Amino acid sequence: MTVPTYDLAPAAAILLGGLVLALGPLAWLGLRRRGAGHGSRLHALAVLTLFLTFDLVLLGAFTRLSDSGLGCPDWPGCYGHASPIGASGPITVAAAAAPLGPVTPAKAWIEMAHRYSATAIGGLIVAMTALALLAARRGRLPVSPWWSVATLVWVCLQGAFGAWTVTLKLYPAIVTLHLLGGLGLLALLAAQAEAFAPRPMRIADALRAGLYAVAALVLLQVALGGWVSTNYAVLACRDFPTCQGSWWPGADFGAGFALLRPLGISADGGFLPFAALTAIHFAHRLGALVVVPAVLLLGWQLLRHGGAPARAPAIVLIVAICWQAATGIGNVVLGWPLVVAVGHTGGSAALVIALTILLARSAAARRSPPQRPWQAAGHPVVS
């Protein structure tokens, strides 16, 4: 059956459902933070939204990796309905016509769960933006409210990429950008949480430069990993440490990294060759050879020289990169099990959050003057 690409009829019901989901965390936080200052409440809201957005990134990975991204082939609803309940008839027909196809009752529920959860996160970010603007108007906000406004704009763009993911039928460049956008949203929320309750981390200039360099390397490696996942290139190499029994397998990097092409199709319109999938997978492996030792070295140096503000995020950094190495290898040798693949995305999200916190704390130290020993001890300064 023909399904309209966009059907806005259920949009109001979906927005209302997302709002109801967002009211639960907001009510809980309001009760927990009664009487707290604006900065404290905004910090708590940013941390809560960060935690729930991390869960949303995992749900998005589960949606993609379980082949549920087209469980509802229209947007924002499901066959013009607000939930798979109303769309049960068309879903049943589509599933009967193609039992292993993209539309089944389970896949439709997974897809709509992701959409409702994303709408709820949007509601929390709207609330955080409104509170930040109100606090800034009253002169009670320690940082610019435009951080929150930028986050709201970002989540709206994420929604647009989510729609394009469906309507453009899992176009790899769009799906990869949607994944990176989710990780970017985590970074924005982590930066705001730090800004509302800063913990300056004073480190040497050389170590700060290393922090920025590793953050850039991780961003590139995450983008490569997203490209592997969205092109379903994980199983192009089924052995480790070699690939197809070779240390340098036959690979077509030009075809593999042609960005403007549909899923499974090459830039010239033919089927994407297997050598292109090999190139995508192998490039991610080569990146890991650089990124894993770089992150481990950075984490060790931060534990030695970063002081208390660096300790927790540096430990997360070390644990996350070891987790990434283990789950990356596990994806290959175990045949890409769903739980391991979702866990690999979670490790990427943890790396992004830890690096953002470290960058924010380093930046906070550069903005604030160093304390003298008597100031740190609480003694007054006589001028």
Distance between the termini: 80 Å
Computed Rg: 23 Å
Order of helices and strands: EHHEHHHHHHHHHH
What general outline do the C-alpha atoms trace? flat
Summarize the main sheet: 2 strands, parallel
Structural class: mainly alpha
What is the number of strand segments?
2
Low-confidence stretches: 372-383
Oligomer: single chain
Strand order, main sheet: write it out. 1-2
Share of residues in helices = 55-70%
Beta-strand share of residues: under 5%
DSSP summary: helix tally: 12
State mean pLDDT (0 to 100 scale). 93
Can you summarize this structure?
The protein has 383 residues and is mainly α.
Structural overview:
The radius of gyration is 23 Å and the shape is flat. The termini are far apart. The chain has 12 helices and 2 strands. It has a two-stranded parallel sheet with strand order 1-2. It has 383 residues and is an all-alpha fold.
Identify the notable features of this structure and list them briefly:
383 residues; mainly alpha; 2 strands
Question: What is the strand and helix layout of this fold?
Answer:
Blueprint: E1 6-7, H1 11-32, H2 38-65, E2 75-76, H3 88-97, H4 105-137, H5 146-167, H6 172-196, H7 205-230, H8 253-256, H9 274-305, H10 308-333, H11 338-367, H12 373-376
Parallel strand pairs: 1-2
Helix pairs in contact: 1-2, 1-4, 2-4, 2-6, 2-11, 4-5, 5-6, 6-7, 6-11, 7-9, 7-11, 9-10, 10-11
